[in-house]
Amino acid sequence: MLAQTIKSALPKLRAADLAYDAIESMIVTLQLKPGMPIVESELIELTGLGRTPLREALMRMSSNGLIVQLPRRGLIISDIEAAGHMTLIETRRVIERLIATSAARRATPQHRADILECADLMVLAAKRADLTEYMAADQALDHVVHEACRNPSAVAAVIPLIIKCRRFWYAFQHEGDIEEGARCHFLLATAIAKGDEEQAEKAANALMDYLESFARKIING
After folding, report:
1. Which domains does the chain have, with CATH numbers?
2. pLDDT tens-place string over residues 6-34
3. φ, ψ for residue 68, nearest 5 deg
4. pLDDT of residue 208
5. What count of other Cβ atoms lies within 10 Å of the Cβ of residue 91?
6. What does the DSSP assignment read for 130-166?
7. What backbone phi and psi angles, to 5 degrees, belong to 75?
8. What is the spatial distance between Cα 22 and Cα 177, in angstroms, rounded to a whole number?
């Protein structure tokens, strides 16, 4: 039921976008582990999607560093680079502030309603400690906010950073606080839904503070 609600909140996606999301989920949740080779036939079977959208999705992932090509080994899943994670968050912070304020300014009434619904689903999933639904709601929220901000350049720049942050978080989830993560997303969603650009920027900063604090805990061990 919760997954159905999340799906209904998403904008209509092309087959290549669906393939991208499906593979992203497998990479983020470590179903496809760092260093694993990409086997097209296996991904077609796992996703239920055709070769053409799958290849388009893989090309996008290769261009943003989620997949790398090695001599004589072909395409493989990229490694989790803990050492460079802080600079990744530093870069993401700047773009997320732009996306948040743009979404607060430009979102339609339907976007605002969907953004709140996705955030509510994140909170509900966190209370249930359901990581699968939490991650699905997080992904859905990103889709709606990205559509609402109407800045494709910012979205294209932030997507690979988001995915790498998700994978880092998932790999070390035992150190994370899922309810705090949901709370940060909820505050961001509320500010965007209200059209409050100043609060949206503050909430985007607070979310990045949470991710930075989590990363420091892992890196400093």
Report:
1. 2-77 (1.10.10.10), 85-220 (1.20.120.530)
2. 455 555 667 888 888 888 888 888 889 99
3. -125, 155
4. 97
5. 13
6. -HHHHHHHHHHHHHHHHHHHT-HHHHHHHHHHHHHHH
7. -80, 135
8. 25
